[in-house]
């Protein structure tokens, strides 16, 4: 598996940095986030280094999503989570701080303090359509 010498997640995967590993398979490792948003917040990463969602290969992406589903189920069954958020950030504009692709698995509890990071409000239909046209 390729590794990036300066990447903290590659070091965690290699066992060169300590972590609380909670799940692993041939392609992925999952470990606890050191700055948990809620109790049980974990990160699932492919063993193979890639920068983010824009770069990760389909096999690693698939394995990482499946790992996130395993942890989401455990958070519900074992931690009593009432819901789960998955989050991935691609690029510093999107808050990415560690440039090794990862999925945050964030257990959610009724009444927990997390809030949506945007305020939903209706968009301009023409502008929505224009963006849609660019995305097709
Ligand atoms: P990002 O901001 O890139 O979406 O997520 C990076 C996450 O990695 C952050 O939530 C941060 O708390 C976590 N993190 C950063 N350094 C370490 C570390 O050394 N060990 C662990 N377990 N998590 C880390
Ligand atoms: Zn890495």
Description:
With 136 residues, the protein is α+β, with helices and mostly antiparallel strands. Helix content is 28%, strand content 18%. It has helices spanning 8-13, 58-78, 125-135; strands at 21-24, 28-32, 42-46, 83-87, 103-108. A 5-stranded antiparallel sheet has the order 1-2-3-5-4, with helices on one face. The chain is globular. The termini are far apart. The mean pLDDT is 97. Bound molecules: guanosine-5'-monophosphate and zinc ion. The site of guanosine-5'-monophosphate has 13 residues, from strand 2.
Q: How many angstroms does the end-to-end distance come to? A: 35 Å
Present as ligands are: guanosine-5'-monophosphate, zinc ion
Quote the beta fraction. 15-25%
Q: Give me the side-by-side strand order of the main sheet.
A: 1-2-3-5-4
Q: Kindly provide the radius of gyration, computed on alpha-carbon positions and rounded to a whole number of angstroms.
A: 17 Å
SS-derived structural category: alpha+beta
E-strand count: 5
Strand and helix order: HEEEHEEH
The helix count comes to: 3
Main beta sheet: 5 strands, antiparallel
Helicity range:
25-40%
Determine the oligomeric state from the structure: single chain
How would the global form be characterised?
globular
Average pLDDT works out at: 97
Unreliable spans: none
Give a topology summary.
Elements: H1 8-13, E1 21-24, E2 28-32, E3 42-46, H2 58-78, E4 83-87, E5 103-108, H3 125-135
Antiparallel strand pairs: 1-2, 2-3, 3-5, 4-5
This protein binds guanosine-5'-monophosphate (5GP) and zinc ion.
Guanosine-5'-monophosphate (5GP) binds at residues 8, 19, 31-35, 43, 89, 95-98.
């Amino acid at each position: 598996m390729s590794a990036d010498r300066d990447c903290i997640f590659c070091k965690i995967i290699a066992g060169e940095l300590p972590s609380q590993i909670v799940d692993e398979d041939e392609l992925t490792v999952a470990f606890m986030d050191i700055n948990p948003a809620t109790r049980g917040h974990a990160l699932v990463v492919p063993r193979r280094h890639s920068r983010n969602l824009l770069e990760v290969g389909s096999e690693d992406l698939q394995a990482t999503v499946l790992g996130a589903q395993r942890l989401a189920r455990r958070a519900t069954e074992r931690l009593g989570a009432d819901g789960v958020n998955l989050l991935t950030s691609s690029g510093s504009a999107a808050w990415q701080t560690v440039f090794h692709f990862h999925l945050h698995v964030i257990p959610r509890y009724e009444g927990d303090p997390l809030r949506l990071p945007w305020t939903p409000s209706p968009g301009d239909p023409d502008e929505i359509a224009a963006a849609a046209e660019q995305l097709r």
